[in-house]
Amino acid sequence: MAYEEASYKDKKVISIGVVSELTGLTERQIRYYEERNLIFPERSPRGSRKYSFSDVETLMEIANKIEDGVQTFEIRQEMIRQNGKEDQRELRKRMLRGQLNAQFGIQDK
């Protein structure tokens, strides 16, 4: 399996203060969404949270849903369902690739 470098959108380089400015959420709201397992920042060696552009987009989606009256528990359940669908798609792709490789005698590296 080839090593794939993370897209610039997925690199965790943005501080919580900048994320707060970009999203309009307070730092406390952002930490709360982390506590509710809706967002997963990385930590720097000094313990500072680092976010990606994808995290910023996710936070905006969460804020919109909260504004529409959706509870954090419901958002989390939707995220779990979505991740399950993506995992199933990836598994199907790997199985199909394996079948094609076997059919044509290609060795996976």
Give a written overview of the molecule.
Keywords: DNA-binding, Repressor, Transcription, Transcription regulation. Residues 13-81 form the HTH merR-type domain. It comes from Peribacillus glennii. By secondary structure, the protein is mainly alpha-helical. Helix content is 60%, strand content 6%. The protein has two domains: 10-69, Multidrug-efflux Transporter Regulator, Chain: A, Domain 2, CATH 1.10.1660.10; 71-109, no CATH class. It has helices at residues 16-23, 27-35, 53-67, 72-104; strands at residues 14-15, 42-43, 49-51. The longest helix is centred in the last third of the chain and has 33 residues, at 72-104.
What is the structure about, briefly put?
This protein has about 110 residues and is mainly alpha-helical. The protein has helices spanning about 15-25, 25-35, 55-65, 70-105; strands spanning about 15, 40-45, 50. It has 2 domains: about 10-70, Multidrug-efflux Transporter Regulator, Chain: A, Domain 2 (Orthogonal Bundle), CATH 1.10.1660; about 70-109, no CATH class.
Give a topology summary:
Elements: E1 14-15, H1 16-23, H2 27-35, E2 42-43, E3 49-51, H3 53-67, H4 72-104
Antiparallel strand pairs: 1-3, 2-3
Keywords: DNA-binding, Repressor, Transcription, Transcription regulation
Domain HTH merR-type: 13-81
Pfam families: MerR_1
